[in-house]
Design goal:
heterodimer, A: 305 residues, alpha+beta, Alpha-Beta Plaits, 2 domains, four-stranded antiparallel sheet, 8% strand, B: 241 residues, alpha/beta, six-stranded mixed sheet, 7 helices, 26% strand, disordered N terminus
Chain lengths: 305, 241
Amino acid sequence: MRNSIWLRGFYQVLYFVRSAFRGMWASRLTSGVAVLTIGVVLVLVGAFLLLVYNMEELIDEFGNELQITAYLDADVSSDAQRDLAARVAALPGVDEVNQVSPEQALERFRSSVGSGVRLLEGLDENPLPASLEISLSPEQRSAGGLAAVSVSIEGLEGIADIRSGREWVEGYLRAISLVRTIGLGLGVILALATLLIVANTIRLGIISRSDELEILSLVGASRGFIRAPFLLEGVLQGGAGGAIALAILFALFELALPGLESGLEMIVGSAPRFFSTSESIMVVGGGAALGLIGSAGALAAGFRS
Amino acid sequence: MRGVGSAVPGIGSDAAIRMYHVSKSYMAGTTALSDVSLELAKGEMVFLTGPSGAGKTTLLKLLFGAERPDEGQIVVLGRNIARLGESAIPPLRRRIGVVFQDFKLLSSRTVAENVALALHVTACSPQKARARVFAILKQLGLQHRRDHYPLALSGGEQQRVALARALVNEPEILLADEPTGNLDPDLTVDIMDLIAGTALRGTSVVVATHELELVKRYRKRTLRIEGGKLIEDVRPLGNAR
């Protein structure tokens, strides 16, 4: 008995699939235009998603390099410097503290300026202060973390000045937020446009197949039986649009990759990434979901009228 | 008010269709049916006659749940149409075959596919559907036309396809609305013989027609409707069914 119910369900699904493909083939021009439009829409949304993902990856990469440099007052003795370094290391959010003496700082400067080393020849004494290079623990490697740890260090006696990438990180995060907001706004508008396109395509399908729907109703088809192929059509159109978008995005990504790779690797040592498998499934699934909602709307309106 | 599910005086328990004081009006204020009561036994065949606009089509629509009565009760195969919810109508329709004057065939589907539509609704397996479609087409003399499209067939053949679709689920009731209205006299007899044959196999049949020649030829019970009222119910002597 249970087997029979499963089989009947299977035969119905088989009919729905065949009917959906038949419907799309019958209105192949409008269905094709709908699929391509959904594809283009999802390419735009997907491009923003990729941009945001990679910008976030970049901040993670930079986060590993983020550190605070605390310059010490000139009158802090070596013992006091060691003591200060230990106190800073004990602060929450601090991973490691590296003490840099004025001599080490001068040496670094010499090696970094190269031929400009002659500039230092006239100096009687080393103008560079001792400093502490403070690395943050992984959970604090963000603009917020930088701010919190900086505030704790600022209050300590013997600290003359603090330098961190906080302003830069904050600006970068604002940029990510802006891109995300634009992407989200664009996504919502384009998603609505997609819904209208699918709904219109399905509505045209309902009108062109009104004879078939009337006959199905006469021979005892339930409301769900009549609607299911149209819903499936919406899902297939949306899903196909999503798959096309994914293919276009991948092709564009591969084309742009050589340039992006060399640029980014030079800065942060990591290459940009494409969608993961689960994210790719979400892009196609997102298209299918838009198709489903659009066709459900068209069915609600179409069957009312 | 007395429910039709309970015993109604003069109405037999083996009735396929029972209508009890049924009235139906449309929005424009026109009365399509007024206080119609009738009974149709299982396996009985009746002609529904009357001029155009008399209410024949409305009566048929009421019987397969395409319309709901304003007043009265309609019990079809034990289900009270007036009280059935939307979701209960499709299962009832699967037990009723309907044939129309304009055939209502899909021109983009083959003969076999048109007939199979009625089976898809019942979630019939493809193998079983093929066998049943072939059997009914053979019974109606259309097996050689199974892969043709309706527009390639004559009017009589098209109506036989529509009849095959109506009968493929072995319905307990067959409703035919002017089934021979578009056919020439020879094809009319051809189709009517097939319809009368289904009544002999136990299906209750209602044929709405304005062709009195047919009524005379087949000598079946005749219900005459005029202005929405049932004005005559004639049972031929010696031929109850």
